User: Fold this.
Amino acid sequence: MSVDLEEHGGASWTAWVRRRALRSFPPDQLLPDSQPVYVASWTYVFGVATLSAFLVVLGSGGVLALRGPAWWHGSSVGHFVNSMHLWSVELFMGFMVIHLWGKFFMAAWRGRRAMTWITGAVSFLASVGAAFTGYLTQQNFASQWIATQAKDGLNSVGIGAYFNVLDFGQMLMWHIVLLPLAVGVLVVVHVLLVRRHGVVPPLPLPPSTAHAVESQDRGNRD
Amino acid sequence: MQLSASFIRAVNLNHRGHYVHWGVIQISVANLVVILLMIAIFGAAILLPFPGRRRK
Assistant:
């Protein structure tokens, strides 16, 4: 879809941002209603499943934040929402790793898609941090045990003074503000990059295999 | 009620974890099961036909 840049002219920064956004993400590319035939594969379902699980993580985490630890440790509904938060994280991490395996074996960074790959990989690392700080904010003996084990590892690499796993307040803020924000922003950028550059096409077949497939196709048509 | 009690007994986690030792590698059976399940799902995702693909 072509965009008339003259029509969207103007010297203000808002006009510049609008022109830039329309050039980078034309509406039919941002919200497409069809995809190439090779996207019809179970492998691609796991990216969407990861996004869906992430929304459940944010929703259940929001409810836990509203009600507090006395509720999630002491009531049956609290136990349920606490478990929903745990299991949505399990599914989020599981789906994301399967998505990552699929993209790795497809060499999905091909065709100027390096930033798509990098934002995905960094969001995975940020998610690992979010999951570990989640262990520290459970408010039970498990979180105390994990914190005392983690402090030795982090002190040995010299970051214990800045990222103090025994400081509950700091870990809670990392878990509910900084890391979810980082993962959320990276996921949005990742999805926008997928929209901009499209889904990576399959790897080309080796010449001998391609020739054999072509001969078979010709035979089927005849 | 009896069903839920037997279900709770079946998933009773109030015991020491089971671990697999293989040289320097030590992994809990629970984590090993999750990893094997993920590999199985990944294999199934590659091998199973996607519904509606033939129509396109």
User: Anything to note?
Assistant: Chain A has a mean pLDDT of 90. DSSP finds nine helices and no strands in chain A. Chain A touches chain B at residues 37, 40-43, 45-46, 90, 94, 97-98, 101-102 (CB under 8 Å). The CA atoms of residues 47 and 99 of chain A lie 6 Å apart.
